[in-house]
Amino acid sequence: MQLRVVSDQPWDVPADVLAVPFVGEPTFDGVIAEIDKRAGGELTALAAFGELKAERYGSVVTAAGQLRAGRLLAIGAGDADSITRQVVVRIGSAIERRLAGRTVKSLAIWLGELGDRIDGGAAAVGEMLARGVVEGEFEPASIYRDGLKSAPPALDELILIASAADVAAVKRAAERGQVIGEGANVARRLANRAANDVTPEVLAGEARAIAERHGLHIDVLDPKRATELGMGMFLAVGRGSANPPRMIVLRSGEEGAKDAAGRRLAMVGKGVCFDSGGISIKSADRMEEMKMDKTGACTVIAAIATVARLAPGTPLLAIAPAVENMPGPHSARPGDVVKAMNGKTVDIINTDAEGRLILGDAMCYAEKLGATHLVDIATLTGAVARALGDQMTGAFGTPQVWYDSLTAAAERAGERYWQLPMIEEYRSDLDSWYADFINTGSAEGGLIKSALFLREFATVPWIHLDIAGTAYFRKKTTYAPAGATGVAHATLVELALAGAR
Ligand code: BES
Ligand code: ZN
Ligand code: MN
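# manganese (II) ion complex -> structure
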Protein backbone atom coordinates (compact mmCIF):
# COMPACT_ATOMS: atom_id res chain seq x y z
CA MET A 1 0.00 0.00 0.00
CA GLN A 2 1.35 3.38 -1.09
CA LEU A 3 0.88 6.28 1.30
CA ARG A 4 0.34 9.82 0.11
CA VAL A 5 -0.39 12.93 2.10
CA VAL A 6 -1.90 15.88 0.25
CA SER A 7 -3.24 19.28 1.19
CA ASP A 8 -5.77 19.60 -1.63
CA GLN A 9 -9.40 20.30 -0.88
CA PRO A 10 -11.18 17.00 -0.21
CA TRP A 11 -13.47 17.54 -3.22
CA ASP A 12 -10.44 17.84 -5.50
CA VAL A 13 -8.88 14.51 -4.50
CA PRO A 14 -9.43 11.68 -6.99
CA ALA A 15 -9.92 8.33 -5.24
CA ASP A 16 -12.34 5.42 -5.31
CA VAL A 17 -13.67 6.50 -1.92
CA LEU A 18 -13.39 9.71 0.09
CA ALA A 19 -13.94 9.10 3.81
CA VAL A 20 -14.88 11.94 6.16
CA PRO A 21 -15.06 11.50 9.90
CA PHE A 22 -17.46 13.80 11.74
CA VAL A 23 -17.44 14.60 15.44
CA GLY A 24 -20.60 14.45 17.53
CA GLU A 25 -24.00 14.93 15.92
CA PRO A 26 -24.18 14.84 12.12
CA THR A 27 -24.71 18.59 11.74
CA PHE A 28 -22.35 19.89 9.14
CA ASP A 29 -20.49 23.16 8.76
CA GLY A 30 -17.24 24.37 7.24
CA VAL A 31 -15.38 21.95 4.98
CA ILE A 32 -17.76 19.09 5.63
CA ALA A 33 -20.75 21.27 4.67
CA GLU A 34 -19.00 22.01 1.39
CA ILE A 35 -18.34 18.29 0.84
CA ASP A 36 -22.00 17.60 1.53
CA LYS A 37 -23.10 20.35 -0.84
CA ARG A 38 -20.91 19.04 -3.66
CA ALA A 39 -22.25 15.53 -3.01
CA GLY A 40 -25.73 16.88 -3.67
CA GLY A 41 -26.71 17.21 -0.01
CA GLU A 42 -26.60 13.43 0.49
CA LEU A 43 -25.20 13.60 4.03
CA THR A 44 -27.76 16.11 5.26
CA ALA A 45 -30.51 14.02 3.68
CA LEU A 46 -29.25 10.79 5.24
CA ALA A 47 -28.95 12.48 8.65
CA ALA A 48 -32.55 13.77 8.35
CA PHE A 49 -33.67 10.30 7.27
CA GLY A 50 -32.01 8.79 10.38
CA GLU A 51 -29.54 6.67 8.44
CA LEU A 52 -26.56 8.75 9.54
CA LYS A 53 -26.28 9.06 13.31
CA ALA A 54 -23.89 10.36 15.94
CA GLU A 55 -22.93 6.80 16.79
CA ARG A 56 -19.18 6.15 16.98
CA TYR A 57 -17.92 4.06 14.02
CA GLY A 58 -21.38 4.16 12.42
CA SER A 59 -21.08 4.99 8.72
CA VAL A 60 -22.88 5.53 5.43
CA VAL A 61 -21.67 5.24 1.85
CA THR A 62 -23.30 7.56 -0.68
CA ALA A 63 -23.01 8.69 -4.26
CA ALA A 64 -20.33 11.35 -4.64
CA GLY A 65 -22.04 13.89 -6.92
CA GLN A 66 -19.54 16.55 -7.95
CA LEU A 67 -16.71 15.23 -5.77
CA ARG A 68 -13.65 13.87 -7.60
CA ALA A 69 -13.96 10.66 -5.56
CA GLY A 70 -16.13 7.78 -6.75
CA ARG A 71 -18.04 7.40 -3.47
CA LEU A 72 -18.39 9.31 -0.23
CA LEU A 73 -18.17 7.58 3.13
CA ALA A 74 -19.12 9.47 6.30
CA ILE A 75 -18.20 7.94 9.64
CA GLY A 76 -19.05 8.96 13.19
CA ALA A 77 -16.15 9.73 15.52
CA GLY A 78 -18.59 9.98 18.40
CA ASP A 79 -18.63 12.32 21.34
CA ALA A 80 -15.82 14.91 21.08
CA ASP A 81 -14.65 14.56 24.70
CA SER A 82 -14.01 10.83 24.50
CA ILE A 83 -11.99 10.76 21.28
CA THR A 84 -8.65 9.11 22.04
CA ARG A 85 -5.78 7.77 19.98
CA GLN A 86 -7.43 4.36 20.19
CA VAL A 87 -10.66 5.79 18.80
CA VAL A 88 -8.75 7.25 15.84
CA VAL A 89 -7.09 3.88 15.12
CA ARG A 90 -10.52 2.28 15.20
CA ILE A 91 -11.99 4.93 12.89
CA GLY A 92 -9.32 3.93 10.36
CA SER A 93 -10.15 0.25 10.80
CA ALA A 94 -13.90 0.87 10.68
CA ILE A 95 -13.57 2.79 7.38
CA GLU A 96 -11.58 -0.06 5.84
CA ARG A 97 -13.92 -2.73 7.18
CA ARG A 98 -17.01 -0.81 6.02
CA LEU A 99 -15.66 -1.26 2.50
CA ALA A 100 -15.34 -5.06 2.82
CA GLY A 101 -16.35 -6.84 -0.37
CA ARG A 102 -16.32 -3.56 -2.37
CA THR A 103 -14.00 -2.68 -5.21
CA VAL A 104 -11.66 -0.09 -3.76
CA LYS A 105 -8.07 0.49 -4.80
CA SER A 106 -7.54 4.03 -3.56
CA LEU A 107 -8.96 5.40 -0.34
CA ALA A 108 -8.72 9.05 0.68
CA ILE A 109 -9.39 10.13 4.25
CA TRP A 110 -9.87 13.74 5.29
CA LEU A 111 -8.28 14.29 8.71
CA GLY A 112 -10.79 17.00 9.51
CA GLU A 113 -10.83 18.30 13.04
CA LEU A 114 -9.65 15.06 14.66
CA GLY A 115 -6.25 16.69 15.21
CA ASP A 116 -7.81 19.10 17.72
CA ARG A 117 -9.03 16.19 19.80
CA ILE A 118 -5.90 14.19 20.63
CA ASP A 119 -2.37 14.85 21.88
CA GLY A 120 0.04 15.07 18.99
CA GLY A 121 -2.44 16.81 16.68
CA ALA A 122 -2.63 16.06 12.97
CA ALA A 123 0.56 13.95 12.93
CA ALA A 124 -0.85 11.64 15.59
CA VAL A 125 -4.12 11.43 13.66
CA GLY A 126 -2.18 10.48 10.52
CA GLU A 127 -0.26 7.80 12.40
CA MET A 128 -3.33 6.32 14.07
CA LEU A 129 -5.49 6.42 10.91
CA ALA A 130 -2.83 4.76 8.77
CA ARG A 131 -2.29 2.12 11.42
CA GLY A 132 -6.03 1.60 11.71
CA VAL A 133 -6.56 1.21 7.96
CA VAL A 134 -3.73 -1.34 7.80
CA GLU A 135 -5.14 -3.23 10.78
CA GLY A 136 -8.57 -3.06 9.16
CA GLU A 137 -7.20 -4.93 6.14
CA PHE A 138 -6.55 -7.98 8.31
CA GLU A 139 -9.13 -10.70 7.73
CA PRO A 140 -8.63 -14.01 9.56
CA ALA A 141 -11.38 -15.63 7.48
CA SER A 142 -8.89 -15.50 4.58
CA ILE A 143 -6.12 -17.45 6.32
CA TYR A 144 -7.38 -20.82 5.19
CA ARG A 145 -9.43 -19.71 2.15
CA ASP A 146 -8.68 -18.08 -1.17
CA GLY A 147 -10.81 -15.48 -2.90
CA LEU A 148 -13.06 -14.59 0.04
CA LYS A 149 -15.62 -12.16 -1.43
CA SER A 150 -16.31 -10.33 1.81
CA ALA A 151 -12.70 -9.48 2.71
CA PRO A 152 -11.75 -5.83 3.33
CA PRO A 153 -10.21 -4.43 0.13
CA ALA A 154 -6.45 -4.67 -0.47
CA LEU A 155 -5.63 -1.01 -1.10
CA ASP A 156 -3.06 0.18 -3.61
CA GLU A 157 -3.12 3.64 -2.18
CA LEU A 158 -4.09 5.47 1.01
CA ILE A 159 -4.31 9.23 0.65
CA LEU A 160 -4.48 11.34 3.78
CA ILE A 161 -5.81 14.87 3.32
CA ALA A 162 -4.22 17.28 5.78
CA SER A 163 -3.59 21.02 5.95
CA ALA A 164 -0.53 22.27 4.04
CA ALA A 165 1.45 23.05 7.20
CA ASP A 166 1.02 19.48 8.48
CA VAL A 167 1.79 17.48 5.32
CA ALA A 168 5.42 16.58 6.09
CA ALA A 169 4.77 15.63 9.72
CA VAL A 170 1.66 13.65 8.82
CA LYS A 171 3.59 11.76 6.14
CA ARG A 172 6.35 10.73 8.55
CA ALA A 173 3.87 9.74 11.23
CA ALA A 174 1.60 7.83 8.86
CA GLU A 175 4.56 5.78 7.60
CA ARG A 176 5.31 4.86 11.20
CA GLY A 177 1.66 3.94 11.75
CA GLN A 178 1.68 1.75 8.65
CA VAL A 179 4.70 -0.21 9.91
CA ILE A 180 3.16 -0.66 13.36
CA GLY A 181 -0.14 -1.80 11.82
CA GLU A 182 1.66 -4.30 9.60
CA GLY A 183 3.46 -5.67 12.67
CA ALA A 184 0.18 -6.06 14.54
CA ASN A 185 -1.19 -8.03 11.59
CA VAL A 186 1.85 -10.34 11.62
CA ALA A 187 1.09 -11.12 15.26
CA ARG A 188 -2.63 -11.56 14.57
CA ARG A 189 -2.17 -13.89 11.63
CA LEU A 190 0.21 -16.12 13.57
CA ALA A 191 -2.02 -16.09 16.64
CA ASN A 192 -5.11 -17.00 14.61
CA ARG A 193 -3.51 -19.98 12.89
CA ALA A 194 -4.72 -23.37 14.07
CA ALA A 195 -2.83 -25.69 16.41
CA ASN A 196 -2.51 -28.44 13.78
CA ASP A 197 -0.79 -25.82 11.61
CA VAL A 198 1.40 -23.98 14.13
CA THR A 199 3.26 -26.33 16.45
CA PRO A 200 6.12 -25.05 18.62
CA GLU A 201 8.53 -26.05 15.88
CA VAL A 202 6.52 -24.27 13.20
CA LEU A 203 6.34 -21.16 15.38
CA ALA A 204 10.13 -21.30 15.71
CA GLY A 205 10.37 -21.61 11.92
CA GLU A 206 8.17 -18.54 11.48
CA ALA A 207 10.37 -16.67 13.95
CA ARG A 208 13.43 -17.72 11.92
CA ALA A 209 11.89 -16.36 8.72
CA ILE A 210 11.04 -13.08 10.46
CA ALA A 211 14.56 -12.87 11.93
CA GLU A 212 16.10 -13.32 8.48
CA ARG A 213 13.84 -10.72 6.94
CA HIS A 214 14.70 -8.08 9.54
CA GLY A 215 18.31 -8.89 10.40
CA LEU A 216 17.63 -10.25 13.87
CA HIS A 217 19.76 -12.80 15.69
CA ILE A 218 17.88 -15.98 16.55
CA ASP A 219 18.55 -18.94 18.78
CA VAL A 220 16.05 -21.77 19.24
CA LEU A 221 16.58 -24.03 22.25
CA ASP A 222 15.45 -27.63 21.93
CA PRO A 223 14.60 -29.86 24.94
CA LYS A 224 18.20 -31.02 25.21
CA ARG A 225 19.53 -27.49 25.69
CA ALA A 226 16.62 -26.58 27.94
CA THR A 227 17.54 -29.59 30.08
CA GLU A 228 21.18 -28.44 30.30
CA LEU A 229 19.96 -25.02 31.38
CA GLY A 230 17.72 -26.51 34.06
CA MET A 231 14.40 -25.28 32.67
CA GLY A 232 12.37 -27.83 34.63
CA MET A 233 9.08 -25.92 34.53
CA PHE A 234 9.20 -25.28 30.79
CA LEU A 235 10.07 -28.92 30.10
CA ALA A 236 7.35 -30.25 32.41
CA VAL A 237 4.68 -28.47 30.37
CA GLY A 238 6.13 -29.46 27.00
CA ARG A 239 6.52 -33.11 27.89
CA GLY A 240 2.93 -34.18 27.27
CA SER A 241 2.90 -33.54 23.54
CA ALA A 242 4.35 -35.41 20.59
CA ASN A 243 5.29 -31.95 19.26
CA PRO A 244 8.37 -31.01 21.30
CA PRO A 245 8.79 -27.59 22.94
CA ARG A 246 11.02 -24.82 21.66
CA MET A 247 12.41 -21.79 23.49
CA ILE A 248 12.60 -19.08 20.82
CA VAL A 249 15.12 -16.30 21.47
CA LEU A 250 15.33 -13.26 19.18
CA ARG A 251 17.76 -10.39 19.58
CA SER A 252 18.33 -7.06 17.93
CA GLY A 253 21.45 -5.02 18.62
CA GLU A 254 24.77 -6.35 19.87
CA GLU A 255 25.00 -9.03 22.54
CA GLY A 256 25.03 -7.39 25.96
CA ALA A 257 24.41 -3.87 24.60
CA LYS A 258 22.26 -1.38 26.48
CA ASP A 259 19.72 0.86 24.78
CA ALA A 260 19.66 4.68 24.90
CA ALA A 261 17.64 4.52 28.11
CA GLY A 262 20.40 2.41 29.71
CA ARG A 263 18.24 -0.71 29.59
CA ARG A 264 18.54 -4.12 28.15
CA LEU A 265 14.87 -4.85 27.70
CA ALA A 266 13.49 -8.35 27.23
CA MET A 267 9.93 -9.04 26.11
CA VAL A 268 8.74 -12.51 27.08
CA GLY A 269 5.61 -13.97 25.46
CA LYS A 270 3.57 -17.04 26.39
CA GLY A 271 3.59 -19.46 23.48
CA VAL A 272 1.17 -22.25 24.32
CA CYS A 273 0.28 -23.46 20.82
CA PHE A 274 -2.61 -25.39 22.31
CA ASP A 275 -3.77 -25.45 25.92
CA SER A 276 -5.91 -28.51 26.57
CA GLY A 277 -5.18 -28.07 30.26
CA GLY A 278 -3.01 -31.21 30.24
CA ILE A 279 -3.96 -33.88 32.84
CA SER A 280 -6.03 -31.20 34.61
CA ILE A 281 -7.98 -31.17 31.37
CA LYS A 282 -10.32 -28.32 30.46
CA SER A 283 -13.99 -28.83 29.68
CA ALA A 284 -14.89 -29.02 25.98
CA ASP A 285 -16.70 -25.68 26.13
CA ARG A 286 -14.64 -23.19 24.07
CA MET A 287 -11.53 -25.34 24.26
CA GLU A 288 -10.96 -24.54 20.58
CA GLU A 289 -10.05 -21.00 21.60
CA MET A 290 -6.93 -22.37 23.24
CA LYS A 291 -5.15 -22.44 19.88
CA MET A 292 -4.77 -18.71 20.58
CA ASP A 293 -2.95 -19.32 23.84
CA LYS A 294 0.25 -18.54 21.92
CA THR A 295 -0.74 -14.92 21.31
CA GLY A 296 1.84 -13.48 23.73
CA ALA A 297 4.62 -15.26 21.85
CA CYS A 298 3.31 -14.08 18.47
CA THR A 299 3.13 -10.54 19.82
CA VAL A 300 6.73 -10.34 21.06
CA ILE A 301 8.04 -11.94 17.86
CA ALA A 302 6.16 -9.38 15.75
CA ALA A 303 7.07 -6.49 18.06
CA ILE A 304 10.84 -7.04 17.89
CA ALA A 305 10.56 -7.13 14.08
CA THR A 306 8.60 -3.86 14.09
CA VAL A 307 11.23 -2.23 16.30
CA ALA A 308 13.93 -3.50 13.92
CA ARG A 309 12.09 -1.82 11.04
CA LEU A 310 11.60 1.50 12.82
CA ALA A 311 14.91 1.73 14.69
CA PRO A 312 17.37 -0.89 13.42
CA GLY A 313 19.98 -2.02 15.91
CA THR A 314 18.03 -1.09 19.05
CA PRO A 315 19.22 -3.46 21.77
CA LEU A 316 16.25 -5.71 22.55
CA LEU A 317 15.38 -9.32 23.33
CA ALA A 318 12.21 -11.26 22.56
CA ILE A 319 11.81 -14.64 24.21
CA ALA A 320 8.97 -16.99 23.40
CA PRO A 321 8.66 -20.31 25.22
CA ALA A 322 6.60 -22.43 22.83
CA VAL A 323 4.88 -25.62 23.98
CA GLU A 324 1.73 -27.66 23.54
CA ASN A 325 -0.04 -28.43 26.82
CA MET A 326 -1.44 -31.93 26.24
CA PRO A 327 -2.45 -34.95 28.29
CA GLY A 328 -0.53 -38.12 27.50
CA PRO A 329 1.68 -40.84 28.92
CA HIS A 330 4.57 -38.43 29.38
CA SER A 331 2.60 -35.46 30.74
CA ALA A 332 3.35 -33.81 34.03
CA ARG A 333 0.87 -35.01 36.66
CA PRO A 334 -0.80 -32.93 39.35
CA GLY A 335 1.53 -33.20 42.31
CA ASP A 336 4.71 -33.50 40.24
CA VAL A 337 7.56 -31.48 41.70
CA VAL A 338 9.94 -29.78 39.28
CA LYS A 339 12.93 -27.49 39.63
CA ALA A 340 12.87 -24.12 37.90
CA MET A 341 15.90 -22.61 36.21
CA ASN A 342 16.47 -20.35 39.23
CA GLY A 343 16.63 -23.40 41.51
CA LYS A 344 13.21 -22.97 43.13
CA THR A 345 11.08 -26.12 43.38
CA VAL A 346 7.47 -26.06 42.23
CA ASP A 347 4.65 -28.43 43.11
CA ILE A 348 2.47 -28.51 39.98
CA ILE A 349 -0.94 -29.02 41.55
CA ASN A 350 -2.82 -27.95 38.40
CA THR A 351 -1.36 -28.65 34.98
CA ASP A 352 -3.75 -26.08 33.49
CA ALA A 353 -1.82 -23.28 35.21
CA GLU A 354 0.95 -23.87 32.64
CA GLY A 355 1.60 -20.37 31.33
CA ARG A 356 3.30 -19.20 34.51
CA LEU A 357 5.56 -22.28 34.43
CA ILE A 358 6.95 -21.68 30.96
CA LEU A 359 7.16 -17.92 31.52
CA GLY A 360 9.07 -18.32 34.79
CA ASP A 361 11.88 -20.22 33.10
CA ALA A 362 11.85 -17.86 30.11
CA MET A 363 12.17 -14.85 32.44
CA CYS A 364 15.13 -16.46 34.20
CA TYR A 365 16.75 -17.11 30.85
CA ALA A 366 16.18 -13.49 29.82
CA GLU A 367 18.07 -12.38 32.93
CA LYS A 368 20.83 -14.89 32.20
CA LEU A 369 21.16 -13.19 28.80
CA GLY A 370 21.63 -9.89 30.59
CA ALA A 371 18.13 -8.41 30.65
CA THR A 372 17.90 -5.46 33.04
CA HIS A 373 14.17 -4.91 32.46
CA LEU A 374 11.43 -7.45 31.77
CA VAL A 375 7.96 -7.29 30.34
CA ASP A 376 5.96 -10.46 29.89
CA ILE A 377 2.75 -10.83 27.94
CA ALA A 378 0.44 -13.79 28.28
CA THR A 379 -3.10 -15.11 27.88
CA LEU A 380 -2.67 -16.17 31.48
CA THR A 381 -5.98 -16.27 33.35
CA GLY A 382 -9.69 -16.59 32.67
CA ALA A 383 -10.03 -14.37 35.74
CA VAL A 384 -8.70 -11.29 33.97
CA ALA A 385 -11.31 -11.73 31.23
CA ARG A 386 -14.07 -12.01 33.82
CA ALA A 387 -12.82 -8.90 35.63
CA LEU A 388 -12.00 -6.57 32.73
CA GLY A 389 -13.55 -8.08 29.60
CA ASP A 390 -12.10 -7.73 26.11
CA GLN A 391 -11.37 -3.98 26.11
CA MET A 392 -8.91 -3.58 28.97
CA THR A 393 -5.70 -5.49 29.60
CA GLY A 394 -4.82 -6.32 33.19
CA ALA A 395 -1.30 -5.28 34.16
CA PHE A 396 1.11 -5.60 37.06
CA GLY A 397 4.55 -4.14 37.58
CA THR A 398 7.30 -3.44 40.01
CA PRO A 399 8.88 -1.04 40.84
CA GLN A 400 6.22 1.58 40.13
CA VAL A 401 8.56 3.77 38.04
CA TRP A 402 8.99 0.88 35.64
CA TYR A 403 5.23 0.35 35.49
CA ASP A 404 4.86 4.09 34.82
CA SER A 405 6.95 3.71 31.66
CA LEU A 406 4.36 1.20 30.45
CA THR A 407 1.62 3.74 31.07
CA ALA A 408 3.54 6.28 28.96
CA ALA A 409 4.07 3.75 26.15
CA ALA A 410 0.41 2.75 26.24
CA GLU A 411 -0.63 6.39 25.95
CA ARG A 412 1.48 6.83 22.80
CA ALA A 413 0.19 3.54 21.41
CA GLY A 414 -3.47 4.28 22.15
CA GLU A 415 -4.03 1.17 24.25
CA ARG A 416 -5.70 0.61 27.60
CA TYR A 417 -4.27 -1.11 30.69
CA TRP A 418 -5.60 -1.39 34.21
CA GLN A 419 -3.01 -1.76 36.93
CA LEU A 420 -3.74 -4.47 39.46
CA PRO A 421 -2.12 -4.81 42.88
CA MET A 422 0.28 -7.50 44.00
CA ILE A 423 -1.20 -8.10 47.45
CA GLU A 424 1.51 -9.54 49.70
CA GLU A 425 -0.93 -11.32 52.02
CA TYR A 426 -1.96 -13.62 49.15
CA ARG A 427 1.55 -14.92 48.57
CA SER A 428 1.30 -17.45 51.41
CA ASP A 429 -1.56 -19.12 49.57
CA LEU A 430 1.07 -20.42 47.15
CA ASP A 431 3.06 -22.10 49.93
CA SER A 432 3.58 -25.83 49.51
CA TRP A 433 4.43 -28.25 52.32
CA TYR A 434 6.33 -30.16 49.70
CA ALA A 435 8.21 -27.66 47.57
CA ASP A 436 9.01 -23.93 47.53
CA PHE A 437 5.51 -23.22 46.21
CA ILE A 438 2.52 -24.55 44.29
CA ASN A 439 1.61 -23.23 40.83
CA THR A 440 -1.88 -22.07 41.77
CA GLY A 441 -3.64 -21.24 45.00
CA SER A 442 -7.35 -21.05 45.75
CA ALA A 443 -9.49 -19.34 43.11
CA GLU A 444 -10.14 -16.19 45.16
CA GLY A 445 -7.75 -13.52 43.96
CA GLY A 446 -6.39 -15.99 41.42
CA LEU A 447 -5.49 -13.20 39.02
CA ILE A 448 -3.27 -11.56 41.63
CA LYS A 449 -1.76 -14.88 42.67
CA SER A 450 -0.75 -15.60 39.07
CA ALA A 451 1.34 -12.41 39.14
CA LEU A 452 2.77 -13.26 42.57
CA PHE A 453 3.87 -16.60 41.13
CA LEU A 454 5.62 -14.94 38.18
CA ARG A 455 7.30 -12.43 40.50
CA GLU A 456 9.31 -15.32 41.98
CA PHE A 457 11.23 -15.46 38.70
CA ALA A 458 12.17 -11.80 38.27
CA THR A 459 15.01 -10.06 40.07
CA VAL A 460 14.96 -6.95 37.86
CA PRO A 461 12.19 -4.41 37.11
CA TRP A 462 9.32 -6.39 35.63
CA ILE A 463 5.89 -5.80 34.07
CA HIS A 464 3.27 -8.49 33.50
CA LEU A 465 0.47 -8.04 30.95
CA ASP A 466 -2.44 -10.51 31.14
CA ILE A 467 -4.13 -10.40 27.74
CA ALA A 468 -6.45 -13.41 28.23
CA GLY A 469 -9.44 -11.06 27.85
CA THR A 470 -8.11 -8.77 25.12
CA ALA A 471 -6.05 -11.05 22.86
CA TYR A 472 -9.00 -11.99 20.68
CA PHE A 473 -12.59 -10.97 20.10
CA ARG A 474 -15.26 -13.66 20.24
CA LYS A 475 -17.51 -11.57 17.98
CA LYS A 476 -16.75 -9.10 15.26
CA THR A 477 -17.31 -5.38 15.82
CA THR A 478 -17.58 -2.48 13.37
CA TYR A 479 -13.81 -1.97 13.69
CA ALA A 480 -12.43 -5.51 14.01
CA PRO A 481 -13.16 -9.07 12.97
CA ALA A 482 -13.57 -11.92 15.43
CA GLY A 483 -10.20 -13.38 16.36
CA ALA A 484 -6.81 -11.99 17.30
CA THR A 485 -6.78 -8.24 18.00
CA GLY A 486 -3.04 -7.54 17.96
CA VAL A 487 -3.41 -6.06 21.44
CA ALA A 488 -0.25 -4.75 23.12
CA HIS A 489 1.90 -4.97 19.99
CA ALA A 490 1.97 -1.18 19.64
CA THR A 491 2.57 -0.67 23.36
CA LEU A 492 5.54 -3.06 23.38
CA VAL A 493 6.95 -1.29 20.33
CA GLU A 494 6.63 2.11 22.06
CA LEU A 495 8.15 0.74 25.26
CA ALA A 496 11.15 -0.57 23.32
CA LEU A 497 11.48 2.56 21.16
CA ALA A 498 11.83 4.66 24.30
CA GLY A 499 15.36 3.23 24.20
CA ALA A 500 16.03 3.86 20.50
CA ARG A 501 19.02 6.03 19.65
N1 BES B 1 -4.75 -20.21 28.79
C1 BES B 1 -5.49 -20.23 30.00
C2 BES B 1 -6.15 -18.89 30.31
C3 BES B 1 -7.25 -18.44 29.39
C4 BES B 1 -8.57 -18.71 29.69
C5 BES B 1 -6.96 -17.69 28.27
C6 BES B 1 -9.57 -18.26 28.85
C7 BES B 1 -7.95 -17.24 27.42
C8 BES B 1 -9.26 -17.52 27.72
C9 BES B 1 -4.58 -20.58 31.17
O1 BES B 1 -3.51 -21.41 30.89
C10 BES B 1 -5.41 -21.27 32.19
O2 BES B 1 -5.82 -22.37 31.93
N2 BES B 1 -5.62 -20.62 33.32
C11 BES B 1 -6.38 -21.17 34.37
C12 BES B 1 -5.59 -21.02 35.64
C13 BES B 1 -6.12 -21.79 36.80
C14 BES B 1 -5.97 -23.28 36.55
C15 BES B 1 -5.37 -21.37 38.02
C16 BES B 1 -7.69 -20.40 34.47
O3 BES B 1 -7.69 -19.20 34.27
O4 BES B 1 -8.72 -21.04 34.71
ZN1 ZN C 1 -2.87 -21.38 28.93
MN1 MN D 1 -4.06 -23.48 31.02
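# post-check
The chain has two domains: 2-187, 193-497.
The CA atoms of residues 332 and 362 lie 19 Å apart.
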